[in-house]
Amino acid sequence: MRRFLIDAIVYVRDLALGFSRGWSRFFFLPADPTPLGLIRALVGVLGFWSLFVIGLDLHDYLGSQGWSDAAGAYDAMPPFGWSLWFYVPDSLLRVAWLASLAVFASMAVGLFSRTTSILAWIVIVSTVRRIPIALFGFDQILSTMALYVAVSGASGRAVSLDRLLKRWREARRNAAVVRPKGARKVSPDGPGRPEPSVGANIGLRLLQLHLAFIYGMAGLAKLRGPSWWTGMALWGTMNAGEFAWLDFTWLAAWPMVLNLLTHGSLALEIVYPILIWFRLTRPLMIAGAVALHLGIAVMSPGLAEFGVAMIVANVAFVSGTWLRSLVAGRDDEQPALRVLYDGACPRCRASMALATAADPDRVVEPIDLTAIDVKTIHPSLTAEACLRSMHVVSRSGKVESGYDAVTRIGSRLPLFRPLALLGRLPGVVQAGRVAYNRIASSRPRDAVCTDETCGIHPPVSVTGAASRTRDSSAI
After folding, report:
1. pLDDT tens across 406-417, in order?
2. Rounded distance, CA 208 to CA 222, Å?
3. Which of 97, 236, 248, 443 is least enclosed, having the fewest CB within 10 Å?
4. CATH classification of 329-441, choosing from 3.40.50.150, 3.40.50.12780, 3.40.30.10, 2.160.20.10?
């Protein structure tokens, strides 16, 4: 009996310790904020779009005499419910709407991320409570994602202007420091990749758990419907005149296909909460969820926004390293470009500081040509040519210079990729080369500080100067 009690106590102790360690690892282990930053950006875009559409009939939606009576909507709110739109007079409705759009736009680009994510959630909830007649799944998922993004407080650590501006300030400070007999540093001090944080992990975990609950409960609820057991549930949706926009009646000749689609979607929702947590099956679950929501959008375009929101939410399960590799390449492929710039040119240092600030994955390697022999980078390079214009050398050994080098750098940096694509359009290329050559030919260079240029000399009178001139001529 004594042995039994001792073993029971040890087991309970080990169980409690294991649960405590597992709880801490699950919720409080620092996580890569890249997925959360991407979700924040996409939530900002979706919120902007939703509110913009409402603004097309602003007073009908949010006005005191609109489709949804203000008094009736107020009474329909749950206990402790609230909405800021009840306190906005009709005369200021457009101003408040524009301010809300500015909040969503700032959230999307990651400017003042902590503040704008909280304000965005307030706007979303206020809008949902003000016009309950327009509420559907899209608004619920959007408000859920906005809440977890706001709670985390870490969504601005990646994919944001906040991080870019911070890195740019650091790079500019470093570029202004004179390093005797050495290359100028034009990159930020901090690590290139966003630092993992506990806040990012909490935000992602809450969203992951919510997703698992949504899919699981949706699948279990559908088991109560006979049409899901017979495999014909999707057939009714495909041919509902109110929602369908394509003719799917030809599928009537393929009942096995209908059964496969119906049972496949049902099985996905039931197993999603289990298999999504395993690394090996996670890609299958995410791919299945994307296919499911895209299929629903095809059958019922009215649910397209809801499908997009659910796909965005599934980003919470995607690896941050993999997301960055989609735009920056793999680690073993970096640096993709070696950039030779004139370290004695303030304008060149400033441009390289901006490039390195927008390059957290170190795709570009800046090299101060005033501190090295350019032949060691590529045998075809000369110091004279590199001083005339910027040069880049790719991993394959291809050399580009001037305007072409600038667009090549932009094409490797996600933030500047759209500008690089525009810069390569016919006509733009020729104009860009002319503009670059003019700017490059007029750029300033730092003066070398010597006793002659930087020393302090006593004032010389005109008479004394003339006397020294006569003496030197006599010599």
Report:
1. 999 998 888 898
2. 21
3. 236
4. 3.40.30.10
